[in-house]
Write a structure and sequence with these properties.
206 residues, 5-stranded parallel β-sheet, 5 strands
């Protein structure tokens, strides 16, 4: 069976984004390792993904056989995102860190894919098994082991938790902390990214 890679990108910074450049390197190396595989890209910065509201919640908690046409329409995007996730063998999430956590667009994506009966069992057990996930994360601060601000690493803790909740436990993080040196012009983007190439290569091979 052909392996599919689903790439979910959250940064609005386009080619200037560190997390997107990490993802670009990851996808290139992943394609080289899986030349016949398919890569599906989901760019949250271009989606204007809606947040949860009362109609969505009502529809998501109603059994599919009882869905009205309106409910089906409300859940259309969510169903599409869930189907993409379930069809992929490897999920790559590319995201910056804003105020110690993930961007609102990625949080909305999470809300759309954590679905009772689809990715989450009715008693809370995860239903998504046999998949790998690589998180390519860029942050101004450095939150890795030994950092004095490690307790502020909410983004990593949250993503690891929510992925485990739906059943994905094989998760690798490539954490590119200290991006402010690029924003301040102290190091070039290319030079900064090069320091994380071994970690990206290791994530592809894991």
């Amino acid at each position: 069976m052909m392996t599919k890679l689903l790439l979910v990108e959250a940064s609005p910074r386009g080619e200037h984004s560190i997390s997107r450049n990490l993802a670009k390197t990851f996808v290139a190396q992943w394609r080289a390792a899986h030349p016949d595989a398919e890569v599906i890209e989901r760019d949250l910065a271009k989606m204007n993904l809606p947040y949860m509201n009362l109609p969505w919640m009502g529809a998501s908690l109603t059994p599919a056989e009882k869905h009205t046409p309106e409910m089906k329409d409300v859940l259309r995007v969510s169903n599409e995102l869930v189907a993409e996730l379930l069809a992929a063998g490897h999920i790559a999430i590319s995201t910056p860190v804003y105020n110690y956590n993930i961007p609102a667009s990625l949080k909305s994506y999470v809300d759309h894919i954590v679905r009772k009966g689809l990715t989450l069992g009715m008693t809370g057990e995860g239903l998504v098994h046999g998949k790998k996930c690589t998180v390519l994360m860029a942050s101004g601060g450095v939150y890795t082991e030994g950092s004095p601000i490690r307790v502020r690493d909410i983004a990593t803790m949250y993503l690891r938790l929510i992925l485990k909740v739906i059943g994905i436990e094989d998760v690798t993080f490539v954490s590119a902390g200290g991006t402010k040196v690029v924003d301040l012009g102290e190091r070039s983007r290319t030079e900064f990214l090069q320091t994380f190439e071994p970690a990206v290569a290791s994530a592809v091979q894991s």
